[in-house]
Design brief:
By secondary structure, the protein is of the alpha/beta class. It contains 13 helices and five strands. Strands 2-1-3-4-5 form a five-stranded parallel β-sheet, with helices on both faces.
């Protein structure tokens, strides 16, 4: 659906985001179930339909049914959602869940934007990574891998006034790579606002299909971390970041090989002084 985000309240954006993520599965919800899943009142849900041009939820469902037929793919997705509620071994549950997340992540990937983002990171002066909360581990992995290609990387402070110490060094030729899960943080809002002044580019990995990130960022990449009521996995976001890393490595193949060769030589030279840990 085409949402006019500027006319939606924060709660309404959450509802819109939930609808986008649910796809045709939204047809099987009631208003009360939606309110419970999103932790909002029934009145908030009811007002939402009029805001987007429908008399009520029934009218919205009717429009969806008239415009789209439920595909076999969607039926399979709905079946997978039901399987998750059954008594399955944890490894089977995780496998089913992550398969679905990979499919959704890849379906939403804009190939042209993906290639443009890779080119941008390859040719920028410096990449700053903002990774609050659960994204911190992926950021460390990303820094470790990209530094091997000869790119200059800096992890930004996760929160607070410490961020200013880095902001003062930002330049137009830089890229800020951001993770924005659940909602836009105050730090993310500052980074995006400052981008308008300095003109550096921003690349955002988010689990939100409808959010202010899409209005403020330059390159937005959606990754599925699970439904709102599920355990939020970092497997699909890690997969997406690894795809960026491989894309950059492929484009910088010669430079990457030279750097890895140098790394091997250093390890051999100092293997006695700095032995590899068991």
């Amino acid at each position: 659906m085409k949402w006019d985000v500027t006319k939606l309240t924060p709660s309404q954006k959450r509802i819109a985001d939930f609808i986008e993520k649910s796809g045709e599965h939204i047809l099987y919800f009631s208003e009360t179930e939606l309110a419970q899943k999103l932790h909002v009142s029934n009145a908030t849900i009811s007002r939402f339909w009029k805001q987007i041009g429908y008399d009520n939820f029934k009218a919205f469902k009717t429009a969806i049914k008239e415009n789209e037929q439920i595909s076999p793919e969607s039926k399979l997705k709905n079946s997978l959602l039901q399987i998750q509620h059954q008594q399955l071994p944890i490894h089977e549950h995780l496998l089913t869940m992550t398969q679905n997340q990979f499919v959704n992540t890849l379906e939403a990937l804009d190939r042209e934007q993906f290639e443009q983002a890779i080119t941008l990171m390859m040719n920028c002066r410096k990449i700053y990574i903002h990774a609050p909360s659960s994204a911190e581990g992926i950021a460390v992995l990303m820094k470790h891998r990209l530094a091997r290609f000869g790119l200059e990387i800096e992890l930004l402070p996760k929160s607070g006034h410490d961020l200013f110490e880095s902001l003062m060094h930002f330049q137009k030729e830089d890229v800020v790579f951001m993770f924005g899960f659940v909602e836009m943080s105050r730090e993310a809002a500052v980074l995006l606002d400052y981008a308008k002044k300095v003109k550096y580019k921003t690349i955002i990995v988010t689990d939100l299909l409808i959010s202010d990130f899409h209005e403020e960022g330059d390159y937005i990449f959606y990754t599925n971390r699970g439904e709102l009521w599920e355990f939020h996995s970092m497997i699909a976001p890690t997969f997406l970041v690894e795809t960026f890393i491989l894309g950059i490595g492929q484009n910088l193949e010669q430079q990457s090989l030279e750097n890895l060769q140098k790394l091997s030589e250093l390890r051999k030279m100092y293997k006695d002084q700095l032995p590899r840990l068991p």
